[in-house]
Amino acid sequence: MVCDRLKSPRLFAAGRPLVAVALLLGLAACSSFNEGTRNIADAITIYRPEVVQGNFVSKEQVEALKAGMTRLQVRDILGTPLLTSLFHGDRWDYVFTMQRQGVEPQHYRLTLYFKGDTLERFEGDEMPSENDFVERIGKKVKPKVPVLEATEEQLAKFPASTASEPEAAAPEQPEPARPGAYPPLEPAR
Q1: Total domains in the fold of the chain
Q2: Model confidence pLDDT, tens digit, residues 16-74
Q3: Nearest to 109 by CA among 81, 76, 134, 75
Q4: Is the domain of 17 the same as that of 39?
């Protein structure tokens, strides 16, 4: 008998608007939750470390390269190349990228071409100087320096010492040995 009432078309028809209202309230709650948490997501940032990958090559190092140098001399200046190809034995590639939070990744490439054991030519991107590189990866944090000023009222709280009165110089006496302490290495004068 109860089951027959649940199957009645009138009861089923009356429940449809309730289901629709519940769905609409659920969707509205989701959108308001999303709007409310968007400000929190902007305030909270995930820590992403600054990453430098590859071989850093500075502008000063590129300026030190000269055509006619041997592979060993080039390796002494630039270090071991990041990429060497079996198919292109006379070509070295130096590649590095810098990734910082909030800044587009920066890619740098330098390619060297050898003829035999001597450097024939090189080409690549404009490299940052060593100072530019340090500035890009370093964070300039200004320390908070307290104000070092005192008013006359603040200074009046401290007793004024007179420099003309020399303190009575007491003869120096050696400190008594403390238990567990070593005796002095040199005798007192």
Answers
A1: 2
A2: 777 888 777 777 766 655 555 556 655 666 666 777 788 888 899 999 999 999 999 99
A3: 81
A4: yes
Domain containing 17 equals 13-43
d(Cα 133, Cα 138) in Å, to the nearest integer?
Answer: 8
Residues 75 and 119 placed together within one structural domain of the fold: yes
Q: Does residue 108 form part of some domain? A: yes
CA atoms within 13 A on the CB side of 83: 15
> Which residues, 6+ apart, have CB-to-CB distance to 130 below 8 Å?
58, 59, 60
Q: How many CA atoms lie within 13 A of 164 on its CB side?
A: 0
Considering the domain architecture, whether residues 78 and 125 belong to the same structural domain is answered as: yes
Residue 73 backbone phi and psi in degrees, to 5: -65, -40
